Amino acid sequence: MRNPFDKSSAILLIYTGGTIGMKEDPKTQALVPFDFSQILQEVPELRKFSSRIDSYTFDPLIDSSDVEPSMWVKLAQLIRDKYDSYDGFIVLHGTDTMAYSASALSFMLDNLGKSVIFTGSQLPVGSLRTDGKENLVSAVEIATAKNMRGNAIVPEVSIFFNSQLMRGNRATKVNSSSFDAFRSPNYPTLADAGINIRYHDHAIHYPPILHGPLQIHTTLDTRVAILKLHPGITEQVARNVLLGAGIRAVILETYGSGNAISKPWFLDIVKESAASGRIILNVTQCLAGEVDMGLYATGKALNDAGVVGGCDMTTEGALGKLFYLMGEYSDNEKVKALLAKNLRGEISK
Measured between alpha carbons, how far is 295 from 95 in angstroms, rounded to an integer? Predict the structure, then answer.
């Protein structure tokens, strides 16, 4: 049995910006942010929870297209500072970069024993057909949910959208004009909200020390470039990215199961980049599936050149993992070794 409504619990809503926090100005009809201290007036359904619900608003608000790693640092520090005062955290965030932020936070928050749930909406919360209220109400219910031992049922960074709770570093935005905006193509949902909320215990990650102190990692190295392969890519483009000045790592978005161009000039550039000490991480362009560089000759050539296989990581997960690992370690060989290991449930092996 589970008790989702713990009367002693408290939740912190953190509004960073995004559509969910907007409503129409009655005079100008323009969308403007509403005062989150009045959240119970905007979403009266929250009054039915026994839990205390407080709010914190970023100042200035951040359009998700303008999200920078400095915002993730501020968010991690806020959660650390408020950690002992709340049982769970809801991060209201624009959808465009939500998967990037959730992925990054999953690595920056170490020994997390409480829910940190990212959510938002495709329509403003004040709109008649908004998805924002349902997303917010369900996220609060999940964040307050505890088992009979009083522990959080989902003690990890996640995204809740359109009735599904997904691991943060496994989700990706797949639709810009539907309520079904996010998917977790390579990992099952952590929970599904229907008439009841069904938790999938086998899919949920639990910290090794459930009640240990939260630790945050705020030193991020962002010297990462992303090169998406495509027919007709030129030698100069590949060279500019793989051998670019100031670049420590490159995420190589390849075809299928990790395949790339077999032309000698491309493989020579890859070899030169790897030999120079740069980290090259291979992730697939496909929405689902994984990189297997031993399957075809072109993938094997990348492996022989020193490219690291990204298994079934999303690009968002790969970026957050690289930022975190490179911030922690100056030794690129150490980073490469850890890229192949499952640290926060971001890969399946």
Answer: 35
